[in-house]
Write a structure and sequence with these properties.
Layout (H helix, E strand, L loop, with lengths): L1 H6 L9 H5 L14 H17 L3 H14 L2 H30 L1
Helix pairs in contact: 3-4, 4-5
């Protein structure tokens, strides 16, 4: 702002061109996907990919997010996979999350 005032330039002169042409974000752009099952499946796929890349912490957190979104049989499958990948740490996390909900 100070540079702009000293030089007598307009704010647009200091912004990258792509910033000027980008449409503003709408609230609808920020909403979560409407289908929790699809969101949960996508989270499980992302957790697997993170684990394979060596990002175990991100993978661990993403599995927990997926389990929180999924329901029924898919939730149980996600829990089983989480336990297979992270064994005791997954068991502890699942026990902790269950006890917090009570």
């Amino acid at each position: 702002e100070i540079d702009r005032r000293l030089r007598g330039s307009k704010p647009q002169d200091f912004l990258p061109a792509r910033t000027l042409t980008r449409p503003p974000l709408r609230a609808a752009d920020l909403r979560r996907p409407s289908d929790p099952t699809e969101e949960g499946k996508a989270l499980v796929r992302f957790a697997r990919a993170q684990y394979l890349r060596g990002n175990e912490s991100d993978s661990f957190d993403t599995y927990q997010m997926a389990i929180g979104v999924l329901s029924g049989r898919l939730k149980e499958l996600a829990k089983a996979e989480f336990r297979r990948v992270f064994s005791d740490a997954a068991d502890q996390a699942l026990r902790t999350s269950t006890s917090r909900r009570r």
